[in-house]
Amino acid sequence: METLLRIQTLHICLLLLGFAYAATSKKALFGSLGNSRVLRIYHLFILSTTIMLVTDLLAWMLDGIPGKGIHVLLLVNHTLYYSLHTMPTVCYILYADLLLHEDPKRLRRWKIPLTVLLLAIVVLSLASPFTGWLFTLDAQNVYARGSLFLLFASIQLLLLLSTLIPLFGVSRRSKAKIYWTLVFFPVIAFIGGLLQSLVYGLVLIWPVTTVFLVAAALNIQKEQIGIDHLTGISNRLWFDEALQRSIRSAPTQKTFACILMDLDGFKQINDTLGHDVGDQALQEMAGILGRVAGPDDIITRYGGDEFAVLLHDTNETLVQAMCDRIETEVALGNKGPSKPYMLSVSMGCAIYDPVRFSDDKAFLSYLDSAMYEEKRAKLGNRR
Q1: Which segments of 264-321 are extended strands (E)?
Q2: Dihedral of the CA atoms 260, 263, 267, 270 (nearest 10)?
Q3: Which residues does 177 contact at the CB level (< 8 Å), separation at least 6?
Q4: How sure is the predictor about 155, in pLDDT bands with cuts at 50, 70 and 90?
Q5: Nearest residue to 40 (alpha-carbon basis) of 82, 84, 99
Q6: Torsion, CA 218, CA 219, CA 221, CA 224, rounded to 10
Q7: CB 226 within 8 A of CB 177
Q8: What would the pLDDT profile of 349-376 be if each residue is shown by its tens digit?
Q9: pTM (2 d.p.)
Q10: Same domain assignment for residues 153 and 15
Q11: Helix %, strand %, coil % for the chain, to 5?
C-alpha cells in the first residue's frame, strides 16, 4: 500500500512538471516566453527533476521483482539516479543567482566547484554497481543503501544549504515577487532531504522540488503577462498596477514621480520606412531607457510609441536629471552608426502629489498634457 502511494505521488509530480514545461516553453500554454538564459536553466531544472522522478518511480515499481533482465535494468536505473541526483540543485543555484542578480558573469564563480562536485558524484555512482558504495542489489533485486550513502546524503544537504548563497545581498523589497518563492526551495528541500535520508521510504525531496518548479512557472507567467514582447520592458498592464501600488503607499512612503514620453515623428518612420524599421526605433528607445533607469525604476512601453518611467524615492532635481540623461542618450544614438531614422522624444514629468492629483487618471492626464505641450513647442520652433 505504501509503495502504491509513493508511485501515485511520483506520477502526480510528473504531470505537474509537464504543466510547468508546457506553461513556459516556446509554444507556451499562455503565450511565448522566448529563449532567455534564465528560462533555459529553468527548463534544464525541469528536465533533471523529471529524470529523478522517472528513475525513482522505476526503482519503486521494480524493487524486489526477480530476474536477470530486471537486475541489469535496476543497476542502470540506480546508477543514473545517483549520477544525476545533484543536477536539480545545481540548476536551482544557477537559476536563483541569475534571476536575482541578473548578471551572467556571476555564474562563472560556480563553474569549477560545481563541475568538480558533479564529476565526483558521477564517479561514485558509476563505481557503485561494483563496490556497493552508494547502493546494492541483492539476488532478489531488493535495493539497499550503500556504505557511503550517509556521506553522499551529507554532501547533498550541504549543497542544499549553499543554495542560500544567491539569496544574500538581494533587496527583498525590490525582488519580493520572486525572493520568497526562491527561499522556499532550499529551506523546505533541506528539511525534506534530511528526513528522507534518516527514514528510508519517505518520498519528499522530489515532490518538494516539483512544487517549487510549478510555483516558479506561475511566477514566470505572471511576469510574462506584464512584459511587452517587442521591447522586452514592462507593458501598460504592469505599469498601471505599479502606479496604483505607488499611489496607495504615497501617504506613508517616499515620493515618486513619472515621466511620460512620446517619439516624435514615429508615424512618418512607419509610413516611409516600414513597420520593421519602426519596431527597431521602439526597441532602441527601450534600450535607452534601460541604460538610464535605476534598479528600482520601472520602464514601460505605455502604448504605441509612448513610453513611461516610474521613479521612486526621488525629487524634482533627480527627475529633471533623468529627463536630461534620456535626451543625451537619444542624441548620442543619433550620432552613432548610420541608420535610416533619427530619434526624438517629447516628455512630460511630475512628482506625484496626493493633494494636487485626486487619482491616477488625473496624474496621467497632467503628464499627457505636459508631454504634448512640449511636442507642440517643438513643432512651433521648426516653423
Answers
A1: 298-303, 306-312
A2: -120
A3: 219, 222, 223
A4: very high
A5: 99
A6: 180
A7: no
A8: 999 998 889 889 999 999 999 999 998 8
A9: 0.64
A10: yes
A11: 65, 10, 25
CATH number of the domain within which 305 lies:
3.30.70.270
Q: What is d(CA 187, CA 153) in angstroms, rounded to the nearest whole number?
A: 16
Separation CA 71–CA 382 (nearest Å): 85
How far, rounded to the nearest angstrom, does the alpha carbon of residue 225 sit from its chain's CA centroid?
13
Query: Distance between CA 330 and CA 247 in Å, rounded?
Result: 30
Same domain, 205 and 260: no
Question: What digits encode the pLDDT tens for the residues 265-282?
Answer: 999 999 899 989 999 999
- What distance in Å separates the CA atoms of residue 98 and residue 126, rounded to the nearest whole number? 31
d(CA 196, CA 371): 62
Cell representation of residue 374: 512640449
| pLDDT per position as a tens digit, 130-149 | 999 999 999 999 999 999 99
CB 143 within 8 A of CB 129: no
Domain containing 313: what range? 236-382
> pLDDT tens digit string along 289-309?
989 988 778 899 999 999 999
Asked if 50 contacts 17 with a C-beta cutoff of 8 angstroms, the reply is: yes
61 & 82 share domain: yes
Q: 221 is written with which cell numbers?
A: 507567467
| 226-239 confidence digits (pLDDT tens) | 778 788 888 888 88
Provide the mean pLDDT of the chain. Answer: 86
